[in-house]
User: What shape does this take?
Amino acid sequence: MEDKLEIGGRQVESRLFMGTGKFADYRLIPEVIKASKAQVITVALRRVDFGTPEENMLNYLPPGIILMPNTSGARNAAEAIRIARIARAAGCGNWVKIEVVSDQKYLLPDNFETVKAIEVLVKDGFVVLPYMSPDLMAAKRMAEAGAAAIMPLGAPIGTNRGLKTRELIQILISEINLPIIVDAGIGRPSEAAEAMELGAAAVLVNTAVATADNPVLMAEAFAQAVEAGRKAYLSGPGATRHFAEASSPLTGFLRNERSESV
Amino acid sequence: MQVKINGKAAELPDNSSLKDLLLARELPLDVVIIELNGEIIHRGQWEALKLSPDDSLEVLRIISGG
Assistant: This one.
């Protein structure tokens, strides 16, 4: 059965997107990407720390991936636009994850500034995937501004708390005619499967894999969960009901209708 | 002359080129991305570009992130 995800005119092979942050060692990253089968991989842009020279992390990314720099660190639209343009000039391609955060406690994204950044970057030729607080009206504005997908959070970044925004994400899936990608908060493969069963187009995971005792095995578990959840969504799950309904026929029992003494 | 690098004041020999600066700081040339006074400077221009007093440089790189 053909089931392809297309974003910004490009076919994406895997519905699991992977972040590369928080890994104890860059050398884990290629193994994790391989186990996750992820094709869309996020990176960030930062100032060089002159005191501690580091390796070039791009050397650890396999060929064939779609690089998606984020605009983390941006507190408003102007900063996000600047970061996106620098990342593109650095050879990261034209995909960008808009991330505008000014709240330091919950790291919740600023949907208003995000819409402004999308408007500018889409006109500038970017394929824009905004990270957002799940809100229908904000998602509509983002779609109108030309976003290629909408990426609502399941729970605050890095919390591993799962699909706390489930009801709101369900509304986005039903009302927005763009891929809905659950980004942030997913901590367990079962939660990734839950998002996919709801009809999410993909999930983006980082902390859940990077903070597992065995990140490579966890990446593989997420790949299977995303695939299972997607298949379950496509198969159309049966209705739920309150009272029991026997799975085996209720006729032809090997018993007498009334108890008889022998 | 004095310039600003990543928000901090730095002293450079007069007439330094951008490439001189990067080499002096032992920065990996294949990795860094340069923004000078808010403009992205492409790799091919580094050698010819002479820095001026009060220039503000951002020396950036791609790192891991989510």
Notes: The beta strands of chain B are 2-5, 8-11, 33-36, 39-41, 56-64. Chain B has one domain: 2-60. Chain B touches chain A at residues 6-7, 25-28, 30-33, 35, 40, 42, 58-66 (CB under 8 Å).
